[in-house]
């Protein structure tokens, strides 16, 4: 029904407007008595064979919602009703910021892709914390970044602020230095600044009563040499793992008219590169750390491909938009048959 009726209507309108409208609809219907239970009955597969223990956490199933969809932790409970095993919120920054000027979100329908140049638009970490305080049983990842106005030399302080604020309310952290939509952010992926940033967060983490997993989200556009640096950094800093990958600045092979819009591209054209990065990291590290696979998952076969390449978990974003909520159940059913 989603692909035949709902998606064609949604795709007639501005993507960002539809995103906000969808949030309003999902929030409204979940307030109707019995609807949350009905959605779980339709979409959720409750099977112990799907459970995964990764970086010390137990996931009900290995399919999660990627960061960027529920930036401000507004609907993490509602989205969990569609069968996700975990929800990643953010990217959050210390101070609220509006992001880049609109229009900043574009569908590349012929390519089954999306280009965004949102620019870490969010209400700030404290606003998200206020919502997370009511969480009871949704496994939450906190994706953190820096404010646009913060120079790179001061970026560590922004990540520290977000880490401290979110620590009591998330199950794991994701350090985002790979978005192409915040000026100079990707420079923080260089070996020296990235090592310093991760070491600082690990030191904060180790002072806590219980350390929480810290993951690094990387760009798909890194060279093999840079990926080898990532392997070395992850092992040296002893962070918990890697999320591969963020959006790409590549436009190779695209056919949509608006393919040259500036920003990061997600969706089906990213599938092959994302999987290649996962396989490279898994092989070169000899499986030394877990990898969360994201990028171009539009079918159960795409998810299985990433798991076979070395991912322990997978996340959806663009595939969720194009394929609808049924894709989560389809992936989990395929994993059970595997």
TrEMBL record:
Pathway: Pyrimidine metabolism; UMP biosynthesis via de novo pathway; orotate from (S)-dihydroorotate (quinone route): step 1/1
Top-level EC class as recorded in UniProt: oxidoreductase
Origin: domain of life: Bacteria
Record: residues binding FMN: 67-71, 91, 143, 176, 217, 245, 267, 296, 317-318
Protein residues bound to substrate: 71, 116-120, 176, 181, 246-247
Reactions mediated catalytically: (S)-dihydroorotate + a quinone = orotate + a quinol
Entry annotated with the keyword 4Fe-4S: no
GO molecular function: dihydroorotate dehydrogenase (quinone) activity
Compartment list: Cell membrane; Membrane
PROSITE patterns the record matches: DHODEHASE_2
Enzyme Commission (EC) number: 1.3.5.2
SUPFAM superfamilies (UniProt xref): FMN-linked oxidoreductases (SSF51395)
A GO biological-process term: 'de novo' UMP biosynthetic process
Active site, UniProt feature: 179 (nucleophile)
Dihydroorotate dehydrogenase catalytic domain segment(s): 50-336
Keywords annotated in UniProt: Cell membrane, Flavoprotein, FMN, Membrane, Oxidoreductase, Pyrimidine biosynthesis
Function: Catalyzes the conversion of dihydroorotate to orotate with quinone as electron acceptor.
Complexes and interactors: Monomer.
Protein name from the UniProt record: Dihydroorotate dehydrogenase (quinone)
Species, as recorded: Galbibacter orientalis DSM 19592
């Amino acid at each position: 029904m989603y692909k035949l009726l709902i998606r064609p209507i949604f795709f007639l309108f501005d993507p960002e407007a539809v995103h906000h409208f969808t949030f309003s609809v999902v929030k409204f219907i979940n307030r109707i008595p019995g609807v949350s239970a009905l959605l779980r009955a339709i979409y959720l597969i409750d099977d112990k064979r799907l459970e995964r223990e990764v970086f010390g956490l137990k996931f009900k199933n290995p399919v999660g919602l990627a960061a960027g969809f529920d930036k401000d932790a507004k609907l993490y409970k509602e989205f969990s009703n569609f069968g996700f095993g975990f929800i990643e919120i953010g990217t959050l920054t210390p101070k609220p910021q509006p992001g880049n000027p609109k229009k900043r979100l574009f569908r590349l329908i012929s390519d089954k892709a999306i280009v965004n140049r949102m620019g870490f638009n969010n209400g700030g970490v404290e606003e998200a914390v206020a919502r997370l305080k009511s969480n009871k049983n949704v496994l939450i990842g906190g994706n953190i970044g820096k404010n646009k106005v913060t120079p790179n030399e001061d970026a560590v302080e922004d990540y520290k602020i977000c880490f401290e604020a979110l620590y009591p309310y998330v199950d794991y952290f994701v350090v985002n230095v790979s978005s192409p939509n915040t000026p100079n952010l990707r420079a923080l992926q260089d070996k020296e600044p990235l090592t310093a940033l991760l070491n600082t967060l690990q030191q904060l983490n180790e002072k806590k009563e219980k350390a929480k997993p810290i993951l690094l989200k990387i760009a798909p556009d890194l060279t093999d040499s840079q990926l080898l640096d990532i392997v070395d950094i992850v092992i040296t800093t002893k962070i918990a793992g890697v999320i591969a990958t963020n959006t790409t600045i590549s436009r190779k092979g695209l056919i949509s008219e608006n393919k040259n819009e500036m920003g990061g591209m997600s969706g089906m054209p990213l599938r092959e590169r994302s999987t290649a990065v996962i396989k490279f990291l898994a092989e070169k590290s000899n499986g030394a750390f877990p990898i969360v696979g994201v990028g171009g998952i539009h079918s159960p076969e795409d998810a299985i491909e990433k798991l076979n390449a070395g991912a322990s978990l997978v996340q959806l974003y663009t595939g969720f938009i194009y394929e609808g909520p049924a894709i989560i159940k389809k992936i989990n059913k395929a994993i059970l048959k595997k």
